[in-house]
């Protein structure tokens, strides 16, 4: 019998506020997917030429099943490539999924592929300016893959930063279909994270050479699977699990193992079990409601997840007709304790987190505190209680689930709600005369949660690095790196800022960063007000800052202020920047329509209307 959980009153109030705000948009969305379900073409009703094209390349048994139209058809949307470690394991998945579908009396076909780029490769390079936009390209690619309308359900093979959010947005455009997401899992642990961070800072100071840095990075990123730090890729997996799109406990099982393969096959069979052809129809668009998104935000705060999801969750929710705001994130952070310390918020990696109890433990603890909607719908049906269990292989090789850990296996990595690492979540929304921004506090020492210092203004991370190498970044300072928003240059991640700023902080300077760009889950010990909106190119106040202006970044009170007399500030013109070099080369010229159409960061930085 499932345990009874009383929902925290504040979580309930926030959910009701979201539902009220979203009422009309959500109703229109549900009506649309209901109409799509009614119009859903049966394969037998297709024109004969259409139908023949749809199964022409299939083997005899699959062709016979699809021709008769009696069994379910499963579409596979894959982000496979063998260049990126996280996606290389997906090479084997289509055949596993086909086998599983046949065992269930159906057929599985690869409907289409989506691009999968790696922010780790493009950091500091021109390609990073396509990264955020790749999310919306992936959503579009997913829609193209499913546009043949011959499928009864779909499974989605994707894991990294923009890929899962893009797949979710695309899946919600076909929200009348069930959707199951299938992870590939993290690579085994490599070089300890503290050592990797130490060598990066030594390289930034010129104390070790490129050979030492490359060796450290190669020992960190060394095999198939996701990178093991808790950035956007692994935050994606936690979200897919706590929002009910994964099988329980599936997120952090390592690749190419019998348990991983068993979970992959079981995911396909579950997708086929919840189509409209059976008695347990669970369409993705109905399942991903306000409760699911609140559960996702609570999980984000409780685990100290990636700041990128203050963009992605907003855009994902909008695709389901739900209007999230940063105020919802801030309000939920106030009642959600931080339960995990995973790099960059600690020294452990996701394998240590998983071994200590992982997502099932987090779900159990949050349910016990009433911080999750226990009655949320998942791919297993209604109720999150099943997500407190973890998968195992029985002696005969069959997949089974057992109760997850009742106690943390390592309280330096994972804790219960009775003794959290901090009483509030790892993200905070800032507001003030410089606009609105997000700050990740879970990795920042408490004595650095408030920084007041003069501004040093830059228009690129390369400018800041040059100033660091020249030795001009002396004294306390707030580094302002602007014209990095979505309209300006696609809102790249600015990870190359962290080693030099970390060095300055370690020297005893009080340092913070303010930017309309991104840092994601890899933002660490330096306080960073990111995603500043409105952005500089869109008339944001960040464009009026000058060197020497006193800036206050206050993560305690939630304020982001410039301490300039109001009259002087109001009369000051905005700076401009020549961004022409950011708009051509490496495909960037093709994305001019995206830069023109993209919305503000707080609205998900999306090109889609209503996002």
From TrEMBL:
Family listed: Belongs to the IlvD/Edd family.
Reaction equation(s) it catalyzes: 6-phospho-D-gluconate = 2-dehydro-3-deoxy-6-phospho-D-gluconate + H2O
UniProt cross-references to HAMAP family, sorted A to Z: Edd (MF_02094)
Annotated residues for binding of [4Fe-4S] cluster: 160, 227
Protein's pathway: Carbohydrate metabolism; Entner-Doudoroff pathway
Cofactor descriptive note: Binds 1 [4Fe-4S] cluster.
Entry keyword set: 4Fe-4S, Carbohydrate metabolism, Gluconate utilization, Iron, Iron-sulfur, Lyase, Metal-binding
Name listed for the protein in its UniProt record: Phosphogluconate dehydratase
EC number: 4.2.1.12
EC main group: lyase
Named cofactor requirement(s): [4Fe-4S] cluster
GO MF assignments: 4 iron, 4 sulfur cluster binding; metal ion binding; phosphogluconate dehydratase activity
Classification via PROSITE patterns: ILVD_EDD_1 (PS00886), ILVD_EDD_2 (PS00887)
Domain Dihydroxy-acid/6-phosphogluconate dehydratase N-terminal: 72-385
Function in brief: Catalyzes the dehydration of 6-phospho-D-gluconate to 2-dehydro-3-deoxy-6-phospho-D-gluconate.
Recorded GO CC terms: cytosol
One Gene Ontology biological process: Entner-Doudoroff pathway through 6-phosphogluconate
Domain Dihydroxy-acid/6-phosphogluconate dehydratase C-terminal: from-to ranges: 412-605
């Amino acid at each position: 019998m499932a345990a009874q959980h009383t929902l925290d009153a504040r979580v309930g109030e926030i959910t009701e506020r979201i539902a009220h705000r979203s009422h009309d948009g959500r109703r229109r969305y549900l009506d649309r997917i209901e109409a799509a379900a009614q119009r859903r073409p049966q394969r037998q009703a297709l024109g004969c030429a259409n139908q023949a094209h749809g199964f022409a390349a299939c083997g005899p048994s699959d062709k016979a099943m699809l021709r008769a139209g009696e069994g379910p058809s499963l579409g596979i949307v894959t982000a496979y490539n063998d260049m990126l470690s996280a996606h290389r394991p997906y090479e084997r998945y289509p055949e596993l999924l086909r086998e599983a579908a046949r065992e269930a009396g159906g057929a599985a076909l690869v409907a289409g592929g989506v691009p999968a780029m790696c922010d780790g490769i493009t950091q500091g390079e021109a390609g990073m300016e396509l990264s955020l936009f790749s999310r919306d390209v992936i959503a579009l690619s997913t829609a193209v893959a499913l546009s043949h309308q011959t499928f009864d359900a779909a499974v989605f093979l994707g894991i990294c930063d923009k890929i899962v959010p893009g797949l979710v947005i695309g899946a919600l455009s076909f929200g009348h279909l069930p959707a199951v997401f299938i992870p590939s899992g993290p690579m085994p642990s490599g070089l300890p994270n503290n050592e990797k961070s130490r060598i990066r800072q030594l390289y930034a100071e010129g104390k070790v050479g490129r050979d030492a840095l490359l060796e450290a990075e190669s020992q960190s990123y060394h095999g198939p699977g996701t990178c093991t730090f808790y950035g956007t890729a692994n935050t994606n997996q936690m979200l897919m699990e706590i929002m009910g799109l994964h099988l329980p406990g599936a997120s952090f099982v390592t690749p190419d193992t019998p348990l991983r393969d068993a979970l992959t096959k079981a995911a396909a069979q579950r997708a086929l079990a919840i189509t409209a052809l059976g008695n347990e129809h669970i369409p993705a668009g109905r399942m991903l409601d306000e409760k699911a998104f609140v559960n996702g935000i609570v999980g984000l705060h409780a685990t100290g997840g990636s700041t990128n999801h203050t963009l992605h969750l907003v855009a994902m929710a909008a695709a389901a007709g739900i209007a999230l705001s940063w105020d919802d994130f801030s309000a939920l952070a106030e009642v959600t304790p931080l339960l995990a310390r995973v790099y960059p918020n600690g020294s452990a990696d996701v394998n240590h987190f998983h071994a200590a109890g992982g997502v099932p433990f987090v779900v159990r603890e949050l349910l016990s505190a009433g911080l999750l909607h226990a009655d949320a719908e998942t791919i297993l049906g209604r109720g999150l209680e099943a997500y407190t269990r973890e998968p195992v292989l029985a002696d005969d090789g069959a997949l089974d689930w057992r109760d997850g850990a009742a106690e943390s296996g390592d309280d330096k990595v994972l804790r219960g709600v009775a003794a959290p690492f901090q009483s509030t979540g790892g993200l905070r929304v800032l507001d003030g005369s410089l606009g609105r921004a997000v700050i990740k506090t879970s990795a920042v020492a408490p004595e650095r949660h408030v920084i007041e210092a003069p501004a040093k203004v830059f228009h690129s991370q390369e400018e800041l690095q040059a100033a660091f190498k020249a030795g001009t970044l002396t004294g306390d300072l707030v580094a302002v790196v602007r014209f990095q928003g979505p309209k300006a240059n696609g809102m790249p991640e600015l990870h190359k800022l962290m080693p030099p700023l970390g060095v300055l902080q370690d020297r005893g300077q009080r340092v913070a960063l303010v930017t309309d760009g991104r840092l994601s889950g890899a933002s660490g010990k330096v306080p960073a007000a990111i995603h500043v909106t409105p952005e500089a190119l869109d008339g944001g106040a960040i464009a009026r800052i000058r060197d020497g202006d006193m800036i206050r970044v206050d993560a305690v009170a939630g304020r982001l202020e410039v301490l300039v007399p109001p009259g002087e500030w109001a009369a000051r013109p905005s700076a401009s920047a020549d961004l022409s070099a950011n708009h051509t080369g490496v495909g960037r010229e093709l994305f001019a329509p995206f830069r023109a159409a993209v919305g503000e960061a707080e609205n998900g930085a999306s090109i889609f209307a209503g996002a």
